[in-house]
Design a protein that fits this description.
about 280 residues; alpha/beta; Rossmann fold; 2 domains; 9 helices; transport; Bact_Polysacc_Export_ATP-bd
Length: about 280
Protein backbone atom coordinates (compact mmCIF):
# COMPACT_ATOMS: atom_id res chain seq x y z
CA UNK A 1 0.00 0.00 0.00
CA UNK A 2 1.36 3.41 -0.99
CA UNK A 3 2.60 5.83 1.65
CA UNK A 4 1.52 9.46 1.66
CA UNK A 5 1.17 12.61 3.75
CA UNK A 6 -1.86 14.85 3.29
CA UNK A 7 -2.26 17.93 5.49
CA UNK A 8 -5.17 20.25 4.75
CA UNK A 9 -5.79 23.65 6.33
CA UNK A 10 -3.76 22.82 9.42
CA UNK A 11 -3.76 25.36 12.23
CA UNK A 12 -2.23 25.07 15.68
CA UNK A 13 -2.84 27.33 18.67
CA UNK A 14 -0.87 26.94 21.88
CA UNK A 15 -1.70 28.40 25.31
CA UNK A 16 0.44 31.24 26.58
CA UNK A 17 0.12 32.33 30.22
CA UNK A 18 0.58 36.08 30.63
CA UNK A 19 0.87 38.16 33.79
CA UNK A 20 -0.41 41.72 33.73
CA UNK A 21 2.06 44.59 34.09
CA UNK A 22 2.80 45.42 37.72
CA UNK A 23 4.17 48.71 39.01
CA UNK A 24 7.30 48.19 41.10
CA UNK A 25 6.73 50.76 43.87
CA UNK A 26 8.84 48.86 46.37
CA UNK A 27 10.52 45.51 46.82
CA UNK A 28 7.80 44.35 49.22
CA UNK A 29 4.92 45.38 46.96
CA UNK A 30 6.61 43.70 43.98
CA UNK A 31 7.10 40.49 45.96
CA UNK A 32 3.49 40.54 47.19
CA UNK A 33 2.13 41.13 43.69
CA UNK A 34 4.22 38.30 42.27
CA UNK A 35 2.91 35.94 44.95
CA UNK A 36 -0.77 36.85 44.61
CA UNK A 37 -1.35 37.73 40.96
CA UNK A 38 -2.71 35.09 38.64
CA UNK A 39 -1.60 34.87 35.02
CA UNK A 40 -4.35 34.75 32.43
CA UNK A 41 -4.29 32.37 29.51
CA UNK A 42 -4.00 33.56 25.94
CA UNK A 43 -3.63 31.51 22.79
CA UNK A 44 -0.88 32.05 20.27
CA UNK A 45 -1.21 30.82 16.69
CA UNK A 46 1.88 28.89 15.57
CA UNK A 47 0.52 27.44 12.31
CA UNK A 48 -2.35 28.73 10.17
CA UNK A 49 -3.93 27.18 7.07
CA UNK A 50 -0.97 24.94 6.23
CA UNK A 51 -1.56 22.41 3.45
CA UNK A 52 0.97 19.87 2.22
CA UNK A 53 0.80 16.76 0.05
CA UNK A 54 3.69 14.31 -0.34
CA UNK A 55 3.62 11.03 -2.23
CA UNK A 56 6.09 8.17 -2.50
CA UNK A 57 9.41 9.37 -3.85
CA UNK A 58 8.94 12.93 -2.61
CA UNK A 59 11.66 14.61 -0.58
CA UNK A 60 10.18 17.81 0.84
CA UNK A 61 12.31 20.62 2.25
CA UNK A 62 10.81 22.88 4.92
CA UNK A 63 12.23 26.38 4.60
CA UNK A 64 11.70 29.42 6.78
CA UNK A 65 13.30 31.79 9.22
CA UNK A 66 13.80 30.76 12.83
CA UNK A 67 10.39 30.70 14.49
CA UNK A 68 8.51 30.30 11.20
CA UNK A 69 6.92 27.02 12.37
CA UNK A 70 9.09 24.37 10.68
CA UNK A 71 9.75 22.21 13.75
CA UNK A 72 6.15 22.60 14.91
CA UNK A 73 4.89 21.38 11.54
CA UNK A 74 7.20 18.37 11.76
CA UNK A 75 5.77 17.58 15.19
CA UNK A 76 2.24 17.82 13.80
CA UNK A 77 3.14 15.48 10.93
CA UNK A 78 4.75 13.05 13.39
CA UNK A 79 1.58 12.91 15.50
CA UNK A 80 3.21 14.49 18.56
CA UNK A 81 0.94 17.56 18.26
CA UNK A 82 -2.72 17.43 17.28
CA UNK A 83 -3.81 20.33 15.07
CA UNK A 84 -6.34 22.80 16.41
CA UNK A 85 -7.85 23.13 12.94
CA UNK A 86 -7.61 21.14 9.75
CA UNK A 87 -6.70 17.51 9.15
CA UNK A 88 -3.56 15.41 8.78
CA UNK A 89 -3.60 12.00 7.10
CA UNK A 90 -0.46 9.87 7.09
CA UNK A 91 -0.13 6.39 5.66
CA UNK A 92 3.07 4.51 6.44
CA UNK A 93 5.36 4.10 9.43
CA UNK A 94 6.92 7.35 10.65
CA UNK A 95 10.22 8.18 12.28
CA UNK A 96 10.83 11.69 13.59
CA UNK A 97 14.43 12.78 14.18
CA UNK A 98 13.55 15.92 16.11
CA UNK A 99 14.83 15.64 19.68
CA UNK A 100 17.22 12.74 20.14
CA UNK A 101 17.13 13.02 23.94
CA UNK A 102 13.36 13.11 24.29
CA UNK A 103 11.88 10.31 26.40
CA UNK A 104 15.07 9.24 28.13
CA UNK A 105 14.93 8.40 31.85
CA UNK A 106 18.03 9.62 33.66
CA UNK A 107 17.89 7.04 36.46
CA UNK A 108 17.33 4.06 34.14
CA UNK A 109 20.26 2.18 32.64
CA UNK A 110 21.39 2.52 29.04
CA UNK A 111 19.93 -0.92 28.30
CA UNK A 112 16.60 -0.01 29.90
CA UNK A 113 16.44 3.25 27.97
CA UNK A 114 16.94 1.38 24.70
CA UNK A 115 13.89 -0.76 25.47
CA UNK A 116 11.83 2.24 26.61
CA UNK A 117 12.59 4.30 23.51
CA UNK A 118 12.12 1.33 21.20
CA UNK A 119 8.72 0.59 22.76
CA UNK A 120 7.70 4.20 22.10
CA UNK A 121 8.73 3.61 18.47
CA UNK A 122 6.37 0.62 18.31
CA UNK A 123 8.98 -2.14 18.47
CA UNK A 124 8.34 -5.33 20.40
CA UNK A 125 10.61 -6.53 23.18
CA UNK A 126 11.88 -9.33 20.96
CA UNK A 127 12.69 -6.92 18.13
CA UNK A 128 14.50 -4.60 20.52
CA UNK A 129 16.52 -7.46 22.02
CA UNK A 130 17.70 -8.34 18.53
CA UNK A 131 18.69 -4.73 17.81
CA UNK A 132 20.34 -4.05 21.18
CA UNK A 133 23.89 -5.23 20.30
CA UNK A 134 24.01 -3.14 17.10
CA UNK A 135 22.60 -0.07 18.91
CA UNK A 136 25.24 -0.31 21.64
CA UNK A 137 27.99 -0.90 19.08
CA UNK A 138 26.94 2.00 16.86
CA UNK A 139 26.78 4.40 19.81
CA UNK A 140 30.06 3.11 21.25
CA UNK A 141 28.40 2.24 24.55
CA UNK A 142 28.91 -1.54 24.73
CA UNK A 143 30.74 -1.23 28.05
CA UNK A 144 28.10 1.13 29.48
CA UNK A 145 24.96 -0.97 28.97
CA UNK A 146 24.29 -1.26 32.71
CA UNK A 147 25.31 2.29 33.63
CA UNK A 148 22.68 4.83 34.61
CA UNK A 149 22.00 7.29 31.81
CA UNK A 150 22.66 10.15 34.24
CA UNK A 151 26.40 9.34 34.38
CA UNK A 152 26.85 9.61 30.61
CA UNK A 153 28.06 12.75 28.90
CA UNK A 154 25.70 14.75 26.70
CA UNK A 155 27.59 13.49 23.65
CA UNK A 156 27.12 9.86 24.70
CA UNK A 157 23.40 10.40 25.26
CA UNK A 158 23.12 12.06 21.85
CA UNK A 159 24.87 9.10 20.19
CA UNK A 160 22.55 6.68 21.97
CA UNK A 161 19.45 8.59 20.90
CA UNK A 162 20.61 8.68 17.29
CA UNK A 163 21.48 4.97 17.28
CA UNK A 164 18.05 4.03 18.64
CA UNK A 165 16.09 6.39 16.39
CA UNK A 166 17.81 5.17 13.22
CA UNK A 167 18.01 1.49 14.15
CA UNK A 168 15.15 0.54 11.81
CA UNK A 169 14.02 1.75 8.41
CA UNK A 170 10.67 3.56 8.22
CA UNK A 171 8.43 4.53 5.33
CA UNK A 172 8.43 8.23 6.25
CA UNK A 173 11.33 10.16 7.75
CA UNK A 174 10.78 13.55 9.41
CA UNK A 175 13.99 15.44 10.16
CA UNK A 176 14.89 18.75 11.79
CA UNK A 177 18.30 19.55 10.25
CA UNK A 178 20.74 16.99 8.89
CA UNK A 179 22.66 15.34 11.72
CA UNK A 180 26.15 16.76 12.18
CA UNK A 181 26.99 16.78 15.90
CA UNK A 182 29.63 14.79 17.74
CA UNK A 183 33.22 13.75 17.15
CA UNK A 184 34.46 13.36 13.58
CA UNK A 185 34.39 9.56 13.57
CA UNK A 186 30.81 9.37 14.81
CA UNK A 187 29.65 12.15 12.48
CA UNK A 188 30.96 10.16 9.51
CA UNK A 189 29.08 7.05 10.67
CA UNK A 190 25.94 9.05 11.37
CA UNK A 191 25.97 10.76 7.98
CA UNK A 192 26.41 7.42 6.22
CA UNK A 193 23.46 5.97 8.12
CA UNK A 194 21.33 9.05 7.48
CA UNK A 195 22.05 8.81 3.76
CA UNK A 196 21.09 5.14 3.82
CA UNK A 197 17.86 5.80 5.74
CA UNK A 198 16.88 8.66 3.43
CA UNK A 199 17.44 6.47 0.39
CA UNK A 200 15.35 3.71 1.95
CA UNK A 201 12.46 6.00 2.96
CA UNK A 202 9.44 6.38 0.72
CA UNK A 203 8.92 10.00 1.83
CA UNK A 204 11.28 12.45 3.54
CA UNK A 205 10.38 15.82 5.08
CA UNK A 206 13.47 17.78 6.09
CA UNK A 207 13.87 21.20 7.71
CA UNK A 208 17.22 22.82 6.99
CA UNK A 209 19.03 26.01 5.99
CA UNK A 210 21.66 24.13 3.95
CA UNK A 211 20.66 25.06 0.40
CA UNK A 212 23.24 22.87 -1.31
CA UNK A 213 22.18 19.78 0.59
CA UNK A 214 18.49 20.52 0.00
CA UNK A 215 19.07 20.86 -3.75
CA UNK A 216 20.81 17.47 -3.75
CA UNK A 217 18.27 15.63 -1.59
CA UNK A 218 14.86 17.25 -2.15
CA UNK A 219 12.56 17.67 -5.13
CA UNK A 220 9.97 19.88 -3.40
CA UNK A 221 10.14 22.80 -1.00
CA UNK A 222 7.56 24.34 1.32
CA UNK A 223 8.32 27.86 2.59
CA UNK A 224 6.79 29.00 5.89
CA UNK A 225 6.69 32.54 7.22
CA UNK A 226 4.96 33.41 10.49
CA UNK A 227 3.30 29.97 10.44
CA UNK A 228 1.77 30.32 6.96
CA UNK A 229 2.71 28.72 3.65
CA UNK A 230 4.04 31.32 1.23
CA UNK A 231 5.31 28.89 -1.41
CA UNK A 232 5.10 25.17 -2.21
CA UNK A 233 6.70 23.80 -5.35
CA UNK A 234 9.95 22.61 -6.97
CA UNK A 235 12.93 22.92 -4.65
CA UNK A 236 14.86 25.56 -6.61
CA UNK A 237 11.81 27.81 -6.81
CA UNK A 238 11.19 27.30 -3.10
CA UNK A 239 14.76 28.27 -2.21
CA UNK A 240 14.44 31.42 -4.33
CA UNK A 241 11.15 32.27 -2.56
CA UNK A 242 12.78 31.82 0.84
CA UNK A 243 15.78 33.95 -0.14
CA UNK A 244 13.43 36.74 -1.20
CA UNK A 245 11.88 36.69 2.28
CA UNK A 246 15.01 36.83 4.39
CA UNK A 247 16.85 39.20 2.06
CA UNK A 248 14.06 41.74 2.58
CA UNK A 249 14.50 41.84 6.36
CA UNK A 250 16.16 44.82 8.10
CA UNK A 251 18.60 42.43 9.80
CA UNK A 252 19.81 41.08 6.46
CA UNK A 253 20.18 44.55 4.93
CA UNK A 254 22.09 45.79 7.99
CA UNK A 255 24.42 42.80 7.86
CA UNK A 256 25.10 43.36 4.15
CA UNK A 257 25.82 47.02 4.83
CA UNK A 258 28.34 46.09 7.54
CA UNK A 259 29.98 43.60 5.20
CA UNK A 260 30.25 46.25 2.47
CA UNK A 261 31.91 48.67 4.89
CA UNK A 262 34.34 45.97 5.99
CA UNK A 263 35.25 45.18 2.38
CA UNK A 264 35.81 48.87 1.58
CA UNK A 265 38.02 49.30 4.62
CA UNK A 266 40.01 46.19 3.74
CA UNK A 267 40.43 47.39 0.15
CA UNK A 268 41.57 50.82 1.35
CA UNK A 269 44.11 49.32 3.72
CA UNK A 270 45.41 47.07 0.96
CA UNK A 271 45.79 50.06 -1.39
CA UNK A 272 47.75 51.98 1.24
CA UNK A 273 50.19 49.11 1.71
CA UNK A 274 50.74 48.90 -2.04
CA UNK A 275 51.64 52.60 -2.27
Amino acid sequence: MSSYILAQGVGLDVPNYVTADRSAKSFLSTLLAAATSRPHREFRTILEDVSLEAREGDRVALLGRNGAGKTTLLRVLSGAFQPTRGTVEVRGSRQALLNLGLGFHQEATVRENVFLRAAAMGLSGRETAGLLPSILEFSGLESCANHRLAVLSSGQRMRLGFAISTSVQHDIMLMDEWFGAGDAEFVDKARARMTDRVRGSKIVVLASHNFQMLREVCNLGLVLDFGRVVHFGPIREAIDAYKAIYQSTPEYRARRARQAVTRRLAAGEGGGDGG
